[in-house]
């Protein structure tokens, strides 16, 4: 018998909002608008190769990366979905060097959105899963229209975080501090439907580690020893090169994802505010951990908008072990 108890993302968000009697609905609307942006981005991602959204633009972003057409498209979709709604005081994006102010002609609100519009850009043209990552904070600045200090908040203060993975299906996974919940887009009704309620990392975890071993020659001794030990213990390795996809697999199966520091990237490659911190919130809410190799990602006090951080994330026991090995490299 088909289960007709469909719980849509919209209904789930409203039910989560009921936990905050003083809620104004702004937070709910931010998530609604993000879900809309995800559907629009997913529609283009699924047509990549048919319509002209693959390939590069002639721009280089603040990270020195060539901006892919879909990076730019996804960034615009999120911007245009969010900038006029009166729920945000400002935004930050991987693809914008500075804080994104809300245009004067639009009202502002009490929340801050930071996002990676398209994660895994190197995989777009070869039809490998990519994603979008978002982090939501409350406004803390005194001024009417938001400021850098609203973005430079420690991860533990996030009110919500999530990601969309554009894979064999389009899934949206989010937490607002009451567990992690996954929704799969049903294109036939255009709704994200609850498919993975209360996601928790499996225990014992699957014996999988995820790291780009091409950089092993530039790792520290401890990092090398940790991976060697996992191999000895018969772990398997999976690395897609899309953080969202590598994280999503780790969340559902267990194991550990690592983007370690190395001689060429002493702070690793991944960005704290819109990659590591939102996924760390989800990892912790799912019973796991996310560490810099030294301290919890959620306790790192940001000093710059695009600062990078080493990242060790997944099953608690494995992240604990990684920290012990990494201590040798300090
Ligand atoms: P983005 O496409 O948003 O710039 O992020 C790419 C990141 C992340 O998705 C992935 O984990 C990592 O780049 C892969 O880096 P390497 O190619 O150095 O392994
Ligand atoms: Mn990029
Ligand atoms: Mn990314
Ligand atoms: Mn990106």
UniProtKB/TrEMBL annotation:
Q: Cite the Fructose-1-6-bisphosphatase class 1 C-terminal domain residue spans from the record.
A: 206-326
Indicate where this protein is primarily found.
cytoplasm
Domain of life, per lineage: Bacteria
- Keywords, ordered alphabetically: Carbohydrate metabolism, Cytoplasm, Hydrolase, Magnesium, Metal-binding
- EC number(s) stated in the UniProt entry for this protein: 3.1.3.11
Gene3D superfamilies (alphabetical) = 3.40.190.80, Fructose-1,6-Bisphosphatase, subunit A, domain 1
Quaternary structure (record): Homotetramer.
In this chain, substrate is annotated as bound at 119-122, 212, 239, 269
| Organism lineage string | Bacteria, Pseudomonadati, Gemmatimonadota, Longimicrobiia, Gaopeijiales
Task: Name the protein family.
Answer: Belongs to the FBPase class 1 family.
Residues that hold Mg(2+) 2 according to the record: 116, 119, 275
InterPro entries, per this entry? Answer: FBPase_C_dom, FBPase_class-1, FBPase_N, FBPtase, Fructose_bisphosphatase_AS
Classification via CDD domains? FBPase (cd00354)
Catalyses which reaction(s) = beta-D-fructose 1,6-bisphosphate + H2O = beta-D-fructose 6-phosphate + phosphate
Q: Does the keyword Metal-binding apply?
A: yes
Question: Which residue numbers delimit the Fructose-1-6-bisphosphatase class I N-terminal domain?
Answer: 8-197
Q: Where in the cell is it found?
A: Cytoplasm
Q: What is this protein called?
A: Fructose-1,6-bisphosphatase class 1
Give the pathway listed in the UniProt entry for this protein.
Carbohydrate biosynthesis; Calvin cycle
| Chain sites annotated for binding Mg(2+) 1 | 94, 116, 118
Query: What would be an example GO MF term here?
Result: fructose 1,6-bisphosphate 1-phosphatase activity
The cofactors it requires, by name, are: Mg(2+)
Cofactor notes = Binds 2 magnesium ions per subunit.
């Amino acid at each position: 018998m088909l289960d007709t108890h469909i719980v849509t993302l919209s209904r789930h968000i409203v039910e989560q909002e009921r936990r905050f009697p003083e809620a104004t609905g702004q937070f709910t609307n931010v998530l609604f608008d993000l879900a809309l942006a995800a559907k629009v981005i997913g529609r283009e991602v699924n047509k990549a190769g048919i319509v002209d959204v693959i390939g590069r633009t002639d721009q280089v972003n603040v990270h020195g990366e060539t901006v892919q057409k879909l990076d730019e498209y996804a960034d615009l979709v999120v911007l245009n979905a969010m900038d006029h709604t009166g729920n945000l005081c400002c935004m930050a994006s991987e693809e914008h060097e500075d804080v994104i102010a809300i245009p004067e002609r639009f009202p502002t609100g009490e929340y801050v959105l930071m996002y990676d519009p398209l994660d895994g850009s190197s995989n777009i043209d070869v039809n490998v899963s990519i994603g979008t990552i978002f982090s939501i904070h409350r406004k803390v600045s005194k001024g009417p229209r938001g400021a850098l200090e609203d973005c430079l908040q420690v991860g533990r203060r996030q009110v919500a975080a999530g990601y969309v993975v554009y894979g064999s299906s389009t899934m949206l996974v989010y937490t607002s501090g009451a567990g992690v919940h996954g929704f799969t887009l049903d294109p036939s009704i255009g709704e994200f439907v609850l498919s993975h309620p209360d996601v928790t990392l499996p225990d014992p975890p699957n014996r999988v580690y995820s790291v780009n071993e091409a950089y092993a020659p530039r790792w520290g001794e401890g990092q090398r020893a940790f991976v060697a030990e996992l191999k000895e213990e018969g772990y398997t390795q999976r690395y897609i090169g899309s953080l969202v996809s590598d994280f999503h697999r780790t969340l559902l199966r267990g194991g550990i994802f690592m983007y370690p520091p190395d001689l060429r990237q002493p702070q690793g490659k991944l960005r704290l505010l819109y990659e590591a911190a939102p996924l760390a919130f989800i990892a912790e809410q799912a019973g796991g951990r996310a560490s810099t190799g030294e301290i919890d990602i959620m306790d790192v006090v940001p000093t710059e908008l695009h600062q990078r951080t080493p990242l060790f994330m997944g099953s608690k026991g494995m992240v604990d072990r990684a920290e012990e090995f990494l201590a040798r490299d300090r």
